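Please check both lines for our workbook:

___
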Amino acid sequence: MKKLMNDPRAVTEQAVAGFVRAHGARLRRVGTGYGVARVDPLLPGTVAVIGGGGSGHEPLHVGFVGGGALAGAVPGEIFSAPTPESILEVVQATHTGAGVLFVVGNYSGDRFNFELAAERCAELGIPARLVVVSDDVGLGSLIPADRRRGIAGMLVALKILGAAAERGDDLETLVAIGDRLNAGLASMGVGLRAGTSPLADVASFDLGEDEMEVGIGIHGELGRDRVPRGRADEIAELLLTEILGELRATPVDTLLVFVNGMGGTPPGELALFFDSVARDLEGRGFAVGRALVGAYVTALDMQGVSVSIARLDPELLSLWDAPLDTPVLRAP
């Protein structure tokens, strides 16, 4: 697989450096690792919301550092958790004394390192808590609910929690909001072609031209089924049946619908697929309350798509609609 790079071992360093150079009015490098923080400091008394995890999912997390979202981001190497030391460097660069909230996906390495960083924060007198996102329902009953992975729903969580922090919510309130959001958030994806790591030069798995992998993760993991490749309408029906069944959503719910590209799917195809999703939902009696379409939580250059749906109560809806100013997303 052809890639635009220099030294494969320096891909993360150069990618972070380039992103910060391109958005220097908003972002600054922090510490000796790959940490990034806002240029404009948080207001005194504001909880610092920090996201992090392995690289390879760009623009998550670095692209969502800014007003109404993250105070800082801590990427690791490709598909590897950041070190506790790197996490602490971002904490020291962003916290105001009101505490730190880490927003992470449900992966053992990420949880372990961020929990260790939270313990070190406590030793320094900095309150720190985690919100662990576990929105992936793609593996169904193959794994227990507490082992579900965090995938595209991480973007929804960091947006809502960043907005809540910016309005002045304290740390415990933020944790409660995150847990409530996670309980009403479900995602599932399909892969049409596997991604290729810069360090491996081979696809993470093989798929025939007429096959698709159902229930894929964002680290090149296989899903639960390999089936004949379907049309966009058929894929939408498959994913929505699983997601809505898991959420037990009703037509009176306000739904945020997020169609996410996995890195190798063109924007036009994502728009086409969102049309399939919206028509399917309408046929079931649901309305799209809020929508987001784009490649925001990727898996290197994987070709594929995921759908995330969140049930938004009035408070969560207000937080989703709150102003946002990041390199990748801005609203209004």
About this structure: The first strand starts at residue 27 and ends at 30.
